[in-house]
TrEMBL record:
InterPro entries: Antitox_Xre, Xre/MbcA/ParS-like_toxin-bd. Residues 114-162 form the Antitoxin Xre/MbcA/ParS-like toxin-binding domain. It comes from Flavobacterium faecale. The lineage of its organism: Bacteria, Pseudomonadati, Bacteroidota, Flavobacteriia, Flavobacteriales. NCBIfam families: TAS_TIGR02293. This is Antitoxin of toxin-antitoxin stability system.
Length: 166
């Protein structure tokens, strides 16, 4: 048990910056457990869920949100309909509420899964903005304003990943 604790502690101290492992995405360094890191390490994230819960409780910092938006080649305005806070109120804060932080991490996980399945940012973004018959002819992006919508979109991406079409 001592070895596990020691190696975990050493790993945390050794590097707070992780390099991107996904193919077809440019190599970028992000702070460990930041929303952008989660995009790139979605498969790693389950083993770190307690850390992510702590990060959500502490609140996402504005620079981490901006970094995520830049990395996924989007704008804050695009996400206004699905965030629990307005962009103008987010611009006034240095650290976001628990609810907003949770949505940011949900987005990070979803984009990570989408990039993995669709192999490119552009293909995934195009899919998000294309009506899906299995999602009631809605744009998948429109459903991301609720946790149930997130689940439905995530399930659809997983179906696509495993070639299971409804």
């Amino acid at each position: 048990m001592d070895n596990k604790v020691t190696s975990r502690t050493k790993a945390k101290k050794a590097s707070a910056v992780i390099q991107t492992p996904l193919k077809n995405l440019k190599a970028v360094n992000f702070a460990e457990f930041s929303p952008s890191w989660v995009v790139l390490h979605g498969k790693d994230a389950p083993s770190f869920k307690m850390e992510l819960i702590d990060r959500i409780r502490q609140g996402v910092k504005k620079p981490d949100w901006k970094q995520l938006i830049d990395y996924i080649d989007s704008t804050e305005k695009e996400f206004e309909p699905i965030l629990p806070a307005s962009i103008s109120s987010m611009q006034k804060k240095a650290v976001y509420s628990k609810e907003t932080s949770e949505r940011i991490y949900e987005l990070a996980r979803l984009f990570g899964l989408g990039y993995e399945v669709f192999d490119s940012k552009e293909d995934f973004k195009q899919w998000l903005m294309t009506p899906s018959r299995t999602l009631g002819n809605k744009l998948p992006f429109e459903l991301l304003d609720s946790s149930f919508g997130f689940e439905m979109v995530e399930s659809e991406i997983i179906r696509i990943q495993y070639n299971v079409y409804s």
